[in-house]
Amino acid sequence: xxxxxxxxxxxxxxxxxxxxxxxxxxxxxxxxxxxxxxxxxxxxxxxxxxxxxxxxxxxxxxxxxxxxxxxxxxxxxxxxxxxxxxxxxxxxxxxxxxxxxxxxxxxxxxxxxxxxxxxxxxxxxxxxxxxxxxxxxxxxxxxxxxxxxxxxxxxxxxxxxxxxxxxxxxxxxxxxxxxxxxxxxxxxxxxxxxxxxxxxxxxxxxxxxxxxxxxxxxxxxxxxxxxxxxxxxxxxxxxxxxxxxxxxxxxxxxxxxxxxxxxxxxxxxxxxxxxxxxxxxxxxxxxxxxxxxxxxxxxxxxxxxxxxxxxxxxxx
Amino acid sequence: xxxxxxxxxxxxxxxxxxxxxxxxxxxxxxxxxxxxxxxxxxxxxxxxxxxxxxxxxxxxxxxxxxxxxxxxxxxxxxxxxxxxxxxxxxxxxxxxxxxxxxxxxxxxxxxxxxxxxxxxxxxxxxxxxxxxxxxxxxxxxxxxxxxxxxxxxxxxxxxxxxxxxxxxxxxxxxxxxxxxxxxxxxxxxxxxxxxxxxxxxxxxxxxxxxxxxxxxxxxxxxxxxxxxxxxxxxxxxxxxxxxxxxxxxxxxxxxxxxxxxxxxxxxxxxxxxxxxxxxxxxxxxxxxxxxxxxxxxxxxxxxxxxxxxxxxxxxxxxxxxxxxxxxxxxxxxxxxxxxxxxxxxxxxxxxxxxxxxxxxxxxxxxxxxxxxxxxxxxxxxxxxxxxxxxxxxxxxxxxxxxxxxxxxxxxxxxxxxxxx
Lengths: 316, 420
Description:
The complex is a heterodimer. Chain A has one domain (2-244). Helices cover 70% and strands 3% of the residues of chain A. Chain A contains eleven helices and two strands, in the order ααααββααααααα. In chain A, strand 1 and strand 2 (160-164) form a beta hairpin. The longest helix of chain A is centred in the first third of the chain and has 35 residues, at 2-36. Chain A starts with a helix and ends in a 13-residue tail after the last helix. Chain B is α/β, with parallel strands linked by helices. In chain B, the strands form four sheets. In chain B, strands 9-8-10-11-12-15-16 form a seven-stranded mixed beta sheet, with helices on both faces. A five-stranded parallel beta sheet of chain B has the order 4-3-5-6-7, with helices on both faces. In chain B, strands 1-2 form a two-stranded antiparallel ribbon. In chain B, helix 2 (56-75) crosses helix 10, helix 5 (165-184) crosses helix 6 and helix 10 (330-349) packs across helix 11. Chain B is globular.
């Protein structure tokens, strides 16, 4: 009985810790969709750029030497956020603004076709550009705690829980960031302008809100948050310029599970995916880990198309 | 073109000749018009490997080996029987899926009717799909891929230089078990199998699953996963519960190696507490140095098709200097050797013609030249295209780098078995 219980607790622990990272990624994607109504196919690739930004901040910019291999990776991950915010802000200003915001009224399909093609194109450019710039050698941020665990003995050695230190700190940072983001969106003037731009572009314009600026900030924030999530994973997961492809589907599943347009819902969606992914291995062959995610995803689409915390008007 | 009194088109002899020449030039007549006059000129050989996507790193290593091979062949006089013709390398990107590999092979044969041989395609699944195309085009393809299926399909234009994965397991496992008995005083009795579901990994574990009792082993855990993993906790938790005497863990993706090895260390199972035998390059790839503390790899064993060996020191040093790589692993050394096999086959064929080269490969039997770059030190292919003396090479991490420990004539270090 004890081995099964230990397996279950270990699966829950791994799922929650990994899920918190997924949740943070999903929050970034959800923010962009919620405010701008843009399905960003390049989101995983922006995360990849964030991972490389964190890696180079740690190795080339001296954060590793300054803060060591315990705290350094987390500080590098947090600083990757502002770097990607600037990149996202510029991408929205010079590229996406042409197919989003106030201009889309005159475009076919409210600009969705153009957005789709543009973000897919951006994805390809980031992947190929990444290979030229960073090469194809997998790298990860050196960390002293990526293979260290807190051992919690729950039954005199018969039931021991291993909590990975890097993942635990990463999950804690992810949770704090989501809380801060929710506070910004719900309590600040900036958050109000973002919500206004999300609810009704025309009305927001009439109220004197600079919708294009709101969109620029939203896109920057969205990719910046996901970059932090990528940076937090970068010490335990080797990555290449194609790493985004491995996560973008999980991000979409998390956003839809949580509810399109719901920032908090996206976090819970990502968390749920992590738990399903890890716990499914207790019942199903390990090969079906990701299949289990999409079975649950399909069930949610059938039974609750608006997602767990989404509005009925926002159906998948 | 003449038109008869009844309005029927009646081609002249000149029209037929012109049409035939156009068809030959377009490559639409496979195998009919391929002989190239290479006297003192160049002969084109191909390398079909992943140069983009998640496997591109491995393709780059194969490219480095092939380019060094081309350089050395040309510096040493090219192909003497073709008047010193130089070899020219053509690169083709197999991408990151079997579909892309097959498309690349189709482009390779359609756009390059003058290729005489090629090497590729890294993953067994890529090689299996690419050789469907090269076989129809009668283009000989040399491969390091391990899958048992590569040379069991009745194909005549594929030549496998490494031991098949199943044979590697059958041959290497008894050696390693004997070693464990000598070192630890007790022969391992239980085994855990933890494998990804790529073709070569599955081929490696299949004979262990089928013949565990013959090896004197009892399987206490058997898990297969789809790479890449997102987290290894569940898998290593199962290893921890099963407590095997030895674990067989063929893995093909570096991120999975890091996740699994670090998790083993985290759970107190690393550094020999559960002796682990892998298969393939991923557990000995130089990229691991940038992703994992090498001390965590100490003692890990992997069975491969080729590795740098005694007697290759000069080439290895040049490779390291030119490429900046810390060692010359199987992808580079085998592709380097493939270029030399192509050169020897061209020399034997005396014609820059792909069918003649294939025939030369079927009858070649050498123990010098290209043979120096393969375990067993002999290049002779059997009727299926498998190199007859191909056997496993056992590599072990020692002092922060993987070294050849078996077979004896190639070994650069003694193997050791960590006591539990």
